[in-house]
Amino acid sequence: MRLKWILFLVLFTAGCSGLHTGASPDFDWSRVEKVSVQGPWEEYQELQKPTLQEVAAMGYDVVPHSSLKTDARLELEVAEALDINEVGAVFSRPKSLHVRIYDADSGTQVALADYYLSSTQSAVDGVKELFAGVKKERSSSKGENKSTAAAPEEAPPVSVPTVQAEAPGKSPAPASTPASQEQEAETSEWDPAEKKKLSPWVPRLESWGFENWGKSREGDGLEEMMK
Length: 227
What we know:
Blueprint: H1 2-14, E1 18-23, E2 34-38, H2 48-57, E3 61-63, E4 72-84, E5 90-103, E6 109-116, H3 123-139, H4 179-187, H5 201-207, H6 222-226
Parallel strand pairs: 2-3, 2-4
Antiparallel strand pairs: 1-6, 4-5, 5-6
Helix pairs in contact: 2-3
Protein name: Lipoprotein
Keywords: Signal
């Protein structure tokens, strides 16, 4: 009875797959260029190539795990579980894949991803799903969402109308004012009510009784004679 219950739990959980991811919000992914990768290649050699390909697809240079020139360390782990086949035989198979990423400088864990395989899913397919979760965490972390402010739109060029330059040469001299206009301009300030200037002798002659001295009369040529 106890064995049947264990087998029931194994079969129930075997058909389920799931992904769990997490990342430190303070880790700056933009400074990561070189990543060292370590995994259980002796037991699961078939996982080495797809794992290295996934890391390279993220834009990182893969370096040996023992390299000192690295920005982050990635470790892949495989957890196994018991399973039962169609003939009732119990065997061990990969149950889940786990990735841990550490900052190479401080040794602090900065990201993780756990993927639980279904009973019909291979570990190689699980690697792809696992790193899909890693990429998702990276894209939502610091240093990946580089907000590029929209560049200010350039103002459309303003077309300035070109003024046609005059042919070089002497500028035309102003037209000469007609004589009649010059005379009119000179006499335009004349006051018709202004009295004609009289001879200085007129007042003296008038005081002597010659009141009409200097006054013109029709048909009288006296004024012309005095000139």
